[in-house]
Amino acid sequence: MTTNTSRDEILRRIRQALGTPTPTTPPDPTTIPRNYLTTHAHRTPQQTTNLLADNLTDYRATVHRTTETHLPHTIANLLTHHGTQRAITPPGLPPHWLTHITTPLTTTTTDTHPDPHTLDTIDTVITHSALAIAETGTIILDASPDQGHRAITLIPDHHICIITPDHIVESLPQALPRLNPTRPQTWISGPSATSDIELTRIEGVHGPRTLDVIIVTAEPSTAPAETVSDEPSA
Amino acid sequence: MSGTYLGLPSFPKAAHDSTRDTQLRANLTHATHTIRTKRATAINELTDWPQLRAAGAAIKDHTLHHLDHYLLQLEAAVTAAGGTVHWALDANEANTIATQIIKNTGETEVVKIKSMTTQETGLNHALETAGIHAYETDLAELIVQLANDKPSHILVPAIHKNRTEIRDIFTTHMTHWGRPAPDNLTDNPTDLAEAARLHLREKFLNTKIGISGANFMIAETGTMVILESEGNGRMCLTLPDTLITIAGIEKIIPTYQDLEVFLQTLPRSSTAERMNPYTSLWTGTTPHDGPHTFHLILLDNGRTDTLADTTGQQALRCIRCSACLNVCPVYERAGGHAYGSPYPGPIGAILTPQLRGTTTPLDTSLPYASTLCGACYDVCPVAINIPQVLVHLRERITQGGPTTTHGTRTTIQPAKGHRLERTTMRATRWTLNHPTALQHAHNLATHTRHLHPQHLPGPAHHWTDTRNLPPLPPHTFRHWWQHHHQTPPTTNTGKGTDTRSETATDTGTDTGTAGTDTGTGTGTGTNTQTDGGPQQ
Fold first, then answer.
1. ipTM of the predicted structure?
2. Residues of chain A with C-beta less than 8 angstroms from the C-beta of B235
């Protein structure tokens, strides 16, 4: 076929250009200098969490902090506050997180591709996350059972995303070793945004326009009052 | 390259018109100044920016120097992950492969993510010819497509349009493409974005084929990476049944770990953000999640010819961040369309003539579309020395010489229209190598100084149309030297102090007229400086 011919021709041209007419021994990438930093500051876990909250807020996600005990309340209150009529969750989300929800809830299954038209009728999606990067304010979803298919976090206009303490890292170089590159990944840094009109940042156009991030913190000896509000906590 | 860009005028002619468009210049100045200030702030957050920049350049160079190895590794990984890999020598072949894949599905509509590569191949036009309609889903690309315009910026393709112009485009054209714009649409950006959201959502939910480019392709895992802001990319990558990705062969990086460099440098260089809102990674196909068929088309289209040029190949490091556009004084005034290619600005000025070859007046004019100020090199996150390549390409255009075209080593002739420049340079070289001739030339020039016209005749008038011809001094430097140094320099021993002070004073007074002498002084200097102790 033409394609095979083109494949051979492109490889021939590359080898001619490089002056290596026959395939060379495997390259040695260790010569690449990697003396950049693995993190840009020394931080306590608390400082890292605060930085994450700050950076998420900077990109107009709304950050809420709560404890594991109060998490079900927080989720339920956010749905009420948003006026959610229908919500969707992935199959692996811990059931006890959803015990206070009164909104009609759909749970996807892992072995069927969700119908986009159905998803378009759903207001809110609730998921866990694979990882969060403090320095960039990034949440990573990797389609694990507690995050579900990529489509469910894409079509509904409101995403409630939960970050647990063991899933927070400081920087990009710390994040990659903890992820599996062959899983479909979606990295989210703030809600959908565009700057295409006179470089004015606008939430939209296509993904969820409202991103509520719940950072679960360790249980303190005296539980603080729940901090669900429109106001970013950071 | 793209049929849509063929036949465009050369850069000076296009820029001649665009620089007179005051609206365009106002839009561009506002946009580029905004983003360049923001970018500087974002970069300053990273104290290890120089190291990240060096690592990015090294990763790209390493990959280019082993491109065959990494492409084969990528092909094996994508195939193992359920994808199909195609190779395309040129734009036509890439378009033909994509058209055939779509025809095999029986579909006639596709949704597209903003992709420089498909702009380069002119895919939309090719699909339209085959009866397939391609919908651009990036807001800026939508604006450009509805207006039947062309993109003018790598990152913000509609940077040349302001909000009122966009409102008018939506109101007039959306109705012909699908859901019309809402009644009484204002020019408020939020309202405009909402109109686009509604217009495009019906396309996303119903279209079975998506087409994308790729920001990065990871050889070791076969993973594709796309960075975006709006979410239209996620829509196109996730909802259709079939996904076709067309990417230049230089978009490859060896390992997953390499992303840690580019995901720090690319967003900050392009949109001046710590991270772009959405980044998508996918590897082949995933059961029950996303498209069940994935095709990757690897495109050459002049890249291997560029690779063969040891100076010019660094253009292939480009990660399409567009930082060089936003700092370029020429881009800011001329706008992206003047570059006559999907790749405008400084990177376009070196990439386009290498990908397409220097055969048209437009391509031969591009390496001159620069002041060589070097701002583009300073901001480039992969340290492409754009001024160096510009000068290199200028030499190729005026001198001709060995190059590689369509994989064949060849020697090209100097480009048309540069004969005068070449003849002048050759004459200059000969004169500088013949001291007597040079002296006569100097004498002739200074003695006829009152006869010199303000505007040069012939093709040289382009130069004096916008500049004053520098006045020549009444005497040549040789004449001045002979007049002030009657005694031979060898007898000056012991009078060094006097000579120096005299020289210093005279140099001061002569500076005003010395401008032209510095140019001719090179030749004179070689004759007299050997024994001219007082010079320093």
1. 0.92
2. 154, 206
